[in-house]
Amino acid sequence: MPASVSLTPPVVNISGVRAGDRNLLNATLTAEGEPLDLTDQVLSAQARTKAVDAAVACTAVVEVVDAAAGTITIRWPGEDVRTMLAGAATWKGVWDLQMAPGVDEDAITLCAGSFAAEMDVTRD
């Protein structure tokens, strides 16, 4: 029987991202049950309408909180979400979180999934 190997990253769907809000997620990244050491790693996250689209709809601010413990924050800036919505009530697309281990190394997609944003009600 042939073996199968899936390189698909874990699916993490994000919904309820609101224009004008903080949209802060806290996460601990692990590998085989142990914290992923993020020392000297560069992490980035983007949302696009479709994965094949050239245009980035929204870029998250990803910060390493504790590199050895694998803890990070991912924040989708509220004003950037408002710009992405462009006056629409909702927006749907896809997103992923990547880690770039080194200058000459390919990025590693840590997770990916659907992304849904909505206009806030209380605003200036």
Described by its quaternary structure, the protein is: single chain
**How can the largest sheet be summarized?**
5 strands, mixed
What is CATH's topology name? Immunoglobulin-like
Strand arrangement, largest sheet?
1-10-9-5-6
| Integer average pLDDT | 95
Whole-number tally of structural domains:
1
Cα(first) to Cα(last) distance is 62 Å
- CATH architecture type: Sandwich
Which structural class is indicated by helix and strand composition?
Answer: mainly beta
Q: What is the CATH first-level class name?
A: Mainly Beta
Provide the helix percentage: under 10%
Whole-number radius of gyration?
16 Å
Strand content: over 45%
Low-confidence stretches: none
Order of helices and strands: EEEEEEEEHEE
Give the overall shape.
globular
Query: How many β strands by DSSP?
Result: 10
Count of individual helical segments: 1
Protein architecture, described:
- By secondary structure, this protein is mostly beta strands.
- It has a single domain (14-117), classed as Immunoglobulin-like (Sandwich).
- 6% of the residues lie in helices and 45% in strands.
- The chain is built from one helix and ten strands, in the order ββββββββαββ.
- Strand 7 (61-66) and strand 8 (71-75) form a beta hairpin.
- The longest helix has 8 residues, at 78-85.
- It is globular and about 55 Å long.
- It starts with 13 loop residues before the first strand and ends in a 6-residue tail after the last strand.
